[in-house]
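Milestone M4 deliverable, item 7.
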Amino acid sequence: MVTTLTEETDPFCLATLDAAAMLFDAPWQRYAVIGDSLSAGTGDKSVGYGDQGWSDRVAHILRQVRPGLAYLNTAVNGATTAATLAHQADAMREFAPDLLHLPCGANDLLRRAPDFGEIERNLRTLYDLAAATGALLTTFTLGRSYVVPVFPDWTERVLTLNDLVRALAGEYGAVVVDMWDHPVNARENLLSADRVHFSTSGQAVMAAEMVRALAAVLAHRTP
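Output delivered:
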C-alpha cells in the first residue's frame, strides 16, 4: 500500500507555527535571497502541499516572529554565478540584509566543460560582497535527484561543486543546508515536470531544513 503524503503528514516538513516557535528569538529584520531558480524556489505545485517556494516560505515563517521583516528576492531562473554578480549584487548591497542566501552555482554546470576555477572565483567574490554586509549567510548544496543525462559526468560535476560550496561556506561561516543525500531525493514525485526543480513538496522540505539550520545557529550563539 502506497502512503500519499501531505504537508501535514510529511515527516520532513514543519507546520508554520512549529517553525516559528523554533525561531522565536530570531534577530533578523532584513532577509535577502539572490541567485538562480534554486534560490527563487521554482517548482511545480504538488498535491497536498502549498504552492510557495522554500524562500517565500522561510520569509513567511520569519514574519510570524518579526512582522516587520523586509524581504528581497532578486533570484532569476537560469542565472549563473557571473550573472548573479553582474545583475543582483548591487541590489543586495543596497538592501543591507542581516540574513542573506547565496546561490551554489547550479547553472554553471550546464556548460560543455565547466570551469570550476571560474565558478570558485565568482562565488568567492559573491561571498566577499555578502560578508561585507555583516549578514548571516546561508546556502544549499545540490541534491542528487537533479540529473542532466546529456552529461555522463554529471554526478562528478555536482560532487565537485558541492565540495567547493561546502569549503567556501566553511571559510566564510555560512550555514550550509546539505541536500545532496537528503532522504527526500528518493521520492518518485519530487521533481517538477522539467525534471530539474523540486516540486513544492520538496520546497516545503527545503524550507523546513533551512528553519532547522537557522534554529541550530540561534541555539549556539553567544548570549
